[in-house]
Prior knowledge:
The structure holds 2 protein chains of 2 kinds.
Chain A: H1 2-20, E1 26-31, H2 41-56, E2 60-65, H3 72-83, E3 88-91, H4 97-106, E4 111-115, E5 124-129, H5 131-145, E6 150-155, H6 160-176, E7 181-186, H7 193-205, E8 210-214, H8 219-226, E9 230-235, E10 246-252, H9 255-267, E11 274-277, E12 284-286, H10 294-309, E13 319-320, E14 326-328, H11 336-340, E15 349-350
Parallel strand pairs in A: 1-2, 1-3, 3-4, 4-5, 5-11, 6-7, 6-8, 7-15, 8-9, 9-10
Antiparallel strand pairs in A: 10-12, 13-14
Chain B: H1 3-30, H2 38-56, H3 59-83, H4 88-107, H5 132-137, H6 141-159, H7 161-171, H8 173-178, H9 183-209, H10 221-231, H11 236-259, H12 265-283, H13 287-293
Helix pairs in contact in B: 1-6, 1-9, 1-10, 1-11, 2-3, 2-4, 2-9, 2-10, 3-4, 3-9, 6-7, 6-11, 10-11, 11-12
Amino acid sequence: MKKMLAMAAGLALSLAVTAVSGDDKLKVAFLYVGPIGDHGWTYTHDQGRLMLEDQLGDKVETVYVESVPEGPDAERAITRLVRDGAGLVFTTSFGYMDPTIKVAENFPDVKFEHATGYKRSDNVSTYIARFYEGRYVIGQIAAKMSKSGVAGYVASFPIPEVVRGINAFMLGAQSVNPDFKVKVVWVNSWFDPGKEKDAAEVMIGQGADIIAQHTDSTAPIQTAQEKGVLGFGQASDMIHFAPKAQLTSIIDNWGPYYVARTQAVLDGSWESSDTWDGMAEGMVVMAPFTNMPDDVAAMAADTTEKIRSGAMHPFAGPIYRQDGEMVIGEGEHLDDGVLLGMNWYVKGVDDELPQ
Amino acid sequence: MSALEAVLLTVITASTPLLLAAIGELVTERSGVLNLGVEGMMVMGAVAGFAAAYTTGSAALGVVAAVGAGIAMSLLFAFLTQTLVTNQVATGLALTLFGLGLSGLIGEGFTGLPGVKLTPIHVPGLSDLPLLGPVLFGQDLLVYASLALTALVAWVLSRTRLGLVIRATGGNHHSAHALGYRVIAVRYGCIAFGGLCSGLAGGYLSLAYTPLWIENMSAGRGWIALALVVFSTWAPRRVAVGAYLFGTVWIMGLYVQGIGIGIPSQLLSSLPYLVTIAALVVISGNRLLTKVNTPACIGQTFVPDR
C-alpha cells in the first residue's frame, strides 16, 4: 500500500512538473559551485549560459543557482530546480555527481548533464574539456619565454585533472627545452587569492620567471606582473588583471556545448553521452598570444592548430615517468583511460607528487 | 632580491592581516564579548576598501572606507548583542554569513577590475639598504599600523586606567557595573575597535596583499585570527608572535615545496596550525597567568539591573 501511495505521489509530481513546463519554452537550469563573479570556473559556465540565452532565447528560459555546496544541499537544489519545471539541468561541479544521479532516478523525463564526473545513466550525460591541450601550448611558450629555464606552477589539489595539466605543461616545455624545470606548489585550495599569491611569490623568489596556475583566482598572474615576470591566465581571459604579464590564457568555452545539448533536447534527439571535448570542438580556446615576440606567437598558434586538427597529441610518446620508466613509446599516444586516472609525474617535474 | 629577503617579505604580508584582525578581536574579548563575526567584518572591509579605492583612485580613501565598513558591521553586532541582548555566538555567526553575502552583492560590479595598490613607504637611504632596507623600511603603512596597534593595545590594557576598566568589564561585569562603570558602553567601544581592526585587515587584503576584489576573498582568515586570540591566552604580544609564527610556517611550507623536497603538501598546509597551537600552548604554560588573562565573562550577556 505504501508503495502504491508513493507511486501515486510520484505520478502526481511528474504531472505537476509537466504542467509547470507546459508552456512552449524549455526551462534549462544550471547549478554552480561558486559565485558567478569568481572570474574562474563558475564564471565561464555562466558565460555559456548567457550564450545559450543569446542563441536560443526564443525557445528556452534559463535559471541558475550559485554557490551551492557539494553534498546534500546539492540534491535539494537540483530537486527544487526540477520541481520548478526544468527540463534540462546542468550540474557543474564534480561533487554534484551522486546527487545528480540520485535526483535523475526520480525524474526519468528530465535530462541531466554533469560536468567532470564519470557516472552516467539513461538521462544523465557527462562532459568535460581537454584543458591539457591548452597546457601543452603554454608549456611550449613558457620554455621559449623563460630566461632562467624554470617555471612555477601554482597547483590546487593532487587529482588526475591537475596532475595531467602539469604533465602536459612539462611535455610542451620539454619539446622546446629538454632541460626545462617546473616547480610545483600545492596550495590545497581551489580558491584563496592570498595563498595563491604567496605560492607564486615564493617560486619567483626561487628563480621561476614564468608562473602557471591551476587555481581559480587572478592572484598568481597579478603577482607575476607585480614582480616583473610572465605568466598565464586560467579559465577565462585575465588580460585586464595583468596586461604586461599574461602570455595567453586557457579559456573554458562551454557555450557551444550548452547550445548543442539544449538543441538536442528541443529536437528530441538527446541521448545520454560522455563528452570530452577539446580544441577541435571549441571547448578549449586560447586567449590572444600577447607579450611575446612574433616567432613565439607563431609557434604557439601552429601548435594550437596542430592539436586542433589532430595532427599532434600532447601525450604522444615517448613519455617517461619521473623514475625514468617508459610509459609509452614513439609513435603512440596515451589513451583516455590512462589520462583520466593520471597520478604520476613525467620526467623532469621538480616535485614529489603528494599521494 | 635575495631568497631570504623574498621569504621575509612574503611572511610579513601573510601575517599582517591575521595580526590586525586578531588584535582587534583580543580587545573585544577582553571586554567580555565573543564576536565570531570577524570573517564577515573583514570581508566587508575588503569590499568597501576596494570599491572606494577603485572609485576614487585613492588607496588612502580605500583604507578609510574599509575601517568604516568594519566599524559599521561591528556596531550592528553591538546593537544586537548589547542593546537587544541576543546570543553572542549566534549573532557572530550570523554576522559572518551576512558579511559574506552582502559583500558579494556590493562587490558584484567590482569583480574583475584592476585594483589600486597601497604603495609601500620609501625612506631615502634606509629603504635601499640591502636586505634590511625593504624588509624594515619598505612596507606599506598598514604593516606598521598593525605593529603599532599591537604595542598600543598591550600598553593600554596593562598600563592604563582604560585598560583596567576593559579588563574589569570582561572579568566580572556585575562588579564593574556595581563600581559604576558603564559596562554596555565599554563593550560598545571594544566591539567597535574590533570592527575597526577587522576592517583594516580586510582593507589590507584588497588593497595591499592582493589588490583585487573576489567574493569570499578573506578565505577563512577571520577564523584563524579568532583561534590565535584564544591560543595566545588574550595577551597582545603573544598574538603578534602567533600571527608571525603562523605566517612564517605557512610560507616555509610553500618554500619547501618550491625547492622540491618531498613532504606531503597536505601536511605542510596543516603545519602552520599545528606549530602555532603547540608554540602558543608552550609559551602560555603559566596556568596562573592564563587564568588571570582569561575574560571570565566572555560570551555572557549582561543586562544592567535598575
